[in-house]
Design a protein that fits this description.
The chain is mostly helical and 127 residues long. The protein has helices at 3-16, 21-28, 32-40, 47-57, 61-66, 82-92, 96-125. The chain has 2 domains: 3-66, lambda repressor-like DNA-binding domains (434 Repressor (Amino-terminal Domain), Orthogonal Bundle), CATH 1.10.260.40; 82-125, no CATH class. It is built from 7 helices and no strands.
C-alpha cells in the first residue's frame, strides 16, 4: 500500500465526513499535526489507529486502506457527516416528544434551505 495514496484517501474520507483534521485527531486520540502527516503520506498509522479511524469515519478497513467498497455492517443509511450522524444517534435516545420536535425543526431547516436554493437559481438565471 502506497502511503501517499492512503493519505489522499484519508483526507477525502475525512472531508466527506465533515471533520477537520483537529476533529479527527480528537476522536482518534492524537494531534492534528499527526493527522496531517498521515494525509501527506509522511507516516502510516499503526493497525490500532487504522481501526479507530475506520470506526470514526464509518467506513470499513477495505475502503480506508484500499479504496474498495465492501459495505460496513450497520452503516447508517449512507450518512457521511460524522457530526450529523452522532447527533442523530443521540436524538434516537430521547423521548418521542423530543424526537418529534427535532424532526419538525429539521423539516423547517430543509424547507428553508430548499427555498433559498430555488430562489438563488431563479435570480441567477434571470441575469
Amino acid at each position: 500500500m502506497d502511503a501517499a495514496e492512503f493519505g489522499r484517501r484519508l483526507r477525502s474520507l475525512r472531508e466527506a465526513s465533515g471533520l477537520s483534521q483537529r476533529e479527527l485527531a480528537d476522536r482518534i486520540h492524537t494531534r492534528a499535526p499527526q493527522v496531517s502527516r498521515y494525509e501527506t503520506g509522511a507516516y502510516m498509522p499503526n493497525a490500532e489507529t487504522l481501526a479507530t479511524i475506520a470506526d470514526v469515519l464509518h467506513v470499513d478497513l477495505d475502503k480506508l486502506l484500499l479504496g474498495r467498497e465492501n459495505g460496513k455492517p450497520g452503516d447508517d443509511v449512507g450518512i457521511k457527516d460524522v457530526r450529523l450522524l452522532e447527533r442523530l444517534r443521540e436524538l434516537e435516545k430521547l423521548d418521542r416528544q423530543y424526537r418529534e420536535t427535532a424532526i419538525a425543526m429539521l423539516d423547517a431547516l430543509i424547507f428553508q434551505g430548499t427555498q433559498e436554493a430555488v430562489k438563488s437559481r431563479l435570480v441567477g438565471s434571470s441575469r
